[in-house]
Each structure stands twice: as structure tokens, then as C-alpha cells.
From TrEMBL:
It comes from Caballeronia telluris. Keywords: Amino-acid biosynthesis, Aromatic amino acid biosynthesis, NADP, Oxidoreductase. This is Shikimate dehydrogenase (NADP(+)). It catalyses: shikimate + NADP(+) = 3-dehydroshikimate + NADPH + H(+). Residues 121-197 form the Quinate/shikimate 5-dehydrogenase/glutamyl-tRNA reductase domain. Pathway: Metabolic intermediate biosynthesis; chorismate biosynthesis; chorismate from D-erythrose 4-phosphate and phosphoenolpyruvate: step 4/7.
Amino acid sequence: MSDQYAVIGSPIGHTKSPLIHGLFAQETRQDMSYTAIEGPLEPQDAFAATVRAFIAAGGKGMNVTAPFKLKAFAMADERSERAELAGAANALSFKDGRIIAENFDGVGLLRDIEVNLNLPMSGKRVLILGAGGAVHGALLPFLAARPAELVVVNRDVAKVKALAAQVVAGGALLACGYGDLEAMGQFDLVVNATSASLTGDLPPVPPGVFSPAGAAYELAYGKRLTPFLRLARNAGVRTIADGVGMLVEQAAEAFAWWRGVRPETRPVIDRLTVPLD
Ligand code: ATR
């Protein structure tokens, strides 16, 4: 039987992970299957039981998506440094009866920005909107890329300050509220990591934060020109992108971790890209 992998989440209906990993497997000639599992929300321990049943049936690894990333992290026997720092897992590997947790969201995002979009972060002014799980995973990889300044804003200012304090003390990282942005000038890169786009909303970001020569990145994908990207475009921003590249890059990291071979991401990104307008 071929090696079995799956993505687990709820709702999982619209996941692109089976398609992405299927294309990776074809390209690298790996004998594996990859399915989607609708994870149980109730009772509390049902998620762990579902993962264990998958392992018992011969499963080798899983991707984990909302809302199970914390539960996956909690049930692991071993956790990578990246998973520890994010406090969440988006990938699991099952080896010799042990569950190993990883988190490739942050590196996937960074790789998409720096490699695919050719926007090295070193020396740049970078702004991240939001303080949810996505931001948690992104802060350390971003700081490691040595931006001149990394500002993270959230409506709930206490939440973003707590997050920043948990990740790193001082340095290039500054946490604040949207009201503080007016006085901060333009940023080379603005990343929308809030969930606002999922409901068609716009975070209260002043258009003055965008630099025409810079970039705006929307973590959501396949939603075309979200209010955030429209604001950036109207501000004359040259490079605007959604999160399809991040989705494929984090998948490639997991694939390489499981299979020991790194797939080409560009053809898969091209295939999944929905034009912004
Ligand atoms: P996750 O599941 O990724 O952890 P979350 O914890 O629900 O997500 O966080 C969602 C993020 O989007 C939060 O930073 C939230 O801001 P608040 O903490 O201030 O609520 C942010 N968010 C959601 N809708 C938003 C909107 N319309 N404008 C600005 N920020 C928004």
C-alpha cells in the first residue's frame, strides 16, 4: 500500500492540500496518497482520537488547519523549535510510534515573499496587520530576515503587545494600534494577516502606510481583489499578491520534511492562482 497522508480541519471542504500534494507526488514520483479529513469539533478529545486512528491505519503524516493547530501541537510527543515558537502545529509526522509537530506557515510566507515575489526583507520597513495564529507563526521568521523595522498592529492592542512580548523583547519589533500608524510613514511591505478579508471587511489601516514602490500581501487566497488589496492598489502600490504562494510553499516544506525531496512550487502556484481581477 502507498504511504498515506492527509489534511485535517473543519470545515475542510474547500482545501487545496490534496491537489497540491498530489501534484508534488506526481512530479517527484512518490508513491503516496493524500486525502482530506473533516475533523470532529466535539467532544474535546475527539480530534486526538481521529489522529490516532489515522496513525493506527498506517498514516505517515498530516497537515493541520483551522481550528486544530493548537490541539495538534498539544498532542505531539516532540515539537520543532518553529512549532514551539508559534505555539501551534500545521504539520505532523508519525515515526516509530511518536508524533512530531512542525510549523511551516511562517517559513512558507517568508519564502513566497522573498523568493517568489523577489522582495528581500532585509533592511526594509515591514508592517503586519493582526495578532492571530498566522501572525504568531510569522514574527520570528520575519525577524530572522532582518527587516529595518517590523511593526505589528491590531485592533485589540493589549493582545498584540502580549504577542510581541512573548516572541521577543525589544529589537526591531514594535507592537501598536491602528491609530499609531498615521505618524509612522510608509512601509515597504504591508501584510494583511487579519481574518477581515474572510468577511469582506477592511482593517482600519490608513492608506498612507503604503509605499508605491513597495508591496502589499494578503494572506487569504482566491478571494480576488479584497478590500485590503484594493486599498493598496488605489494607493498606487506596485506589487500586490494574495496568499496562494504561501499555501503552496508551506505545503512544499511539509512534503520535503516527510519525503526527503523538495518539489517545484512554481507550476503548482501557477495552476492554483486565481487572477486578482
Ligand atoms: P487565528 O485563527 O488566525 O488565530 P484569530 O485569533 O481569530 O485568528 O484572529 C484574527 C485576527 O484578525 C485578529 O488579530 C483580529 O483582530 P482583534 O484581535 O483586534 O479582534 C483580526 N481581525 C478580524 N477582523 C478584523 C477587522 N475587520 N479589522 C481588523 N482586524 C480584524
